[in-house]
Specification:
The longest helix has 12 residues. A hairpin with a 3-residue loop joins strand 6 and strand 7. The chain has three helices and eight strands; from the N terminus they run E-H-E-E-E-H-E-H-E-E-E. Helices cover 23% and strands 40% of the residues. It is α+β, with helices and mostly antiparallel strands. The chain binds zinc ion. Zinc ion binds next to strand 1 and strand 5.
């Protein structure tokens, strides 16, 4: 894996949290995007090389809605940039990690993504992402 691509933070109210993170980071959100297949609305911030993704539920039964209900607001996942997502998925499977999707999915911010089950990663949801070129 190349580097941490972004850190995902689950929030209840996107407008309030967008304002908050604009103040905190001293920079404006550069992209807002809905990922309908995942039931999430996202907002991205850049701080130098790194990115923060805010996530909120767009449907009542989305995974983010369940996460917020169970754990409240906070860090939801850590995403790693990968060169070849299929190769990385194969490598992780062969190491015994459980992937949450069998094939890469289209995620936010022009990425192919795959999630790794947090049960096998000390409770941290890991996202692989490969830039779509
Ligand atoms: Zn993410």
């Amino acid at each position: 894996m190349n580097k941490i691509e972004h850190i995902g933070i689950a929030v209840k109210d996107m407008d309030i949290s967008c304002n908050l993170y604009e103040k905190l980071l001293g920079t404006a959100c550069y992209k807002k995007e809905e990922v309908a297949s995942e039931g999430v609305n996202t907002a991205f911030f850049k701080t130098g090389e790194n990115k923060i993704e805010l996530l909120t539920a767009s449907t009542a039964d989305s995974p983010i809605a369940k996460f917020l209900e169970k754990k409240g607001e906070g860090i939801h996942h850590i995403a790693f940039d990968v060169e070849d997502i299929l190769a990385e998925m194969e490598r992780l499977k062969s190491e015994g990690f459980v992937l949450l999707n069998e094939m890469p999915k289209r995620g936010a911010d022009n990425k192919l993504v795959c999630f790794v089950h947090p049960k096998g990663t000390n409770g941290v949801l890991i996202e692989l992402c490969q830039e779509i070129k």
